[in-house]
Amino acid sequence: MPPPQKKRWESMAKGLVLGALFTSFLLLLYSYAVPPLHPDLPSTTPEGTPSCSPAPDESETTAAATNGSWSANGSSPGGCRPRRDIVFMKTHKTASSTLLNILFRFGQKHGLKFAFPSGRNDFAYPAFFARRLVQGYRPGACFNIICNHMRFHYDEVRGLVAPGAAFITVLRDPARLFESSFHYFGSVVPSTWRRLRGRADKLAAFLREPHRYYDPRGLNAHYLRNLLFFDLGYDSGLDPRSPRVQEHILEVERRFHLVLLQEYFDESLVLLKELLCWQLEDVLYFRLNARRAPAAPRLSAELYRRATAWNVLDARLYRHFNASFWRRVDAFGRERMRREVAALRRANERMRRICIDGGRAVDAAAIRDAALQPWQPLGAKSILGYNLKQSIGRRHAQLCRRMLTPEIQYLMDLGVNLWVTRLWKAVRDFLQW
Ligand SMILES: *[C@@H]1O[C@H](CO)[C@@H](O)[C@H](O)[C@H]1NC(C)=O
Ligand SMILES: *[C@@H]1O[C@H](CO)[C@@H](O)[C@H](O)[C@H]1NC(C)=O
């Protein structure tokens, strides 16, 4: 039964106030901790400060790296050596949590050094990344993997990893991404949410008259337009006719060795496995942080078109990388891709039968183990999670648990101090939000 109208408004108001308070609290906190940054300014690290100097044996490996294609230089059967230095630019609402789990597992298995944030699970997002935000950072410090949410700042990131590190990111059809972001983050964009009050279908109302509801200077407004452009460190409010749009897209292409696509996630993982010279087991996954299928149908054709037009910078970005993705698949071999995707799906399916109680994702309320409870958006328990099977053989017990552990708990397992995140969770638990 739906809650009475009054109660709903009350809790929505509570959520708005809380969301706004918390965000301002964080902004305040970080405006003390981090000097404002701008992408056009030089990086915060002065010239001459040593950047990451990899250990000798590592630099030898990376010397073989040339323009993103790594040539044979090692030991493994494929004639390549598994890459261990990875920058994953984690975009929002793009299946990136699933990829994060893959990276956590690989790093943990090989004892790699992660560049983690301190206090929370992102690098002061939506502020730009700065290397001083990395837990335990000292000039010259060198890390294997960076993968938490950030607003990308290439020069700051580059100096933290070996020169041959692989840069990867993931994109998603911007209309779908917008829909997801709107549902997940809408309520923390008070300027928009206030104006949408009382609309039965907020998404449709917004997309029919976005300029009426959208305030580009409003708190958290970046979540509601060209979020990919924003996360990648660019101005998400650029005039689409500006030549800078295309320049930025080409810059992403130069900087990233692989751009994965959420819609073709398995194909993406096959390309990733190839790029990094990893094993099939390294890229096994269960979908994490997925939203319950909404009661309402997905975007209508009209709203899809509107959402694409509203996020036109992201749409251009996506179109560019969708095209290059398929050229890459052609180069890899279509038939070979089909075989490898089938192998990956079979292996995932096998793990599903081994690990997951009931064989599928369930609502938050049905998750028994708090360690497997996913983080929920404000005001809705819409993110699904899993139950681990009671009896799993010794051989798979650890892998199963790691594959099913949500981001926040995994970060804590890896020793990240998450006091801000945990404080926020305690407040929400207390208010039953
Ligand atoms: C760069 O990559 C291309 C193929 O992608 C290769 O033909 C070329 O030799 C590489 N450049 C260097 C310097 O190795
Ligand atoms: C991506 O490209 C493929 C192949 O050209 C095309 O079939 C598909 O519709 C594109 N996807 C999107 C979401 O535009």
TrEMBL record:
Its main location: Golgi. Residues 41-78 are annotated as: Disordered. InterPro entries: Gal-3-0_sulfotransfrase (IPR009729), P-loop_NTPase (IPR027417). Coiled coil: none annotated. It is found in: Golgi apparatus membrane. The keyword Nucleotide-binding does not apply. Residues 42-52, 61-75 have a biased composition (Polar residues). Belongs to the galactose-3-O-sulfotransferase family. PANTHER family: GALACTOSE-3-O-SULFOTRANSFERASE, GALACTOSYLCERAMIDE SULFOTRANSFERASE. This is Galactosylceramide sulfotransferase.
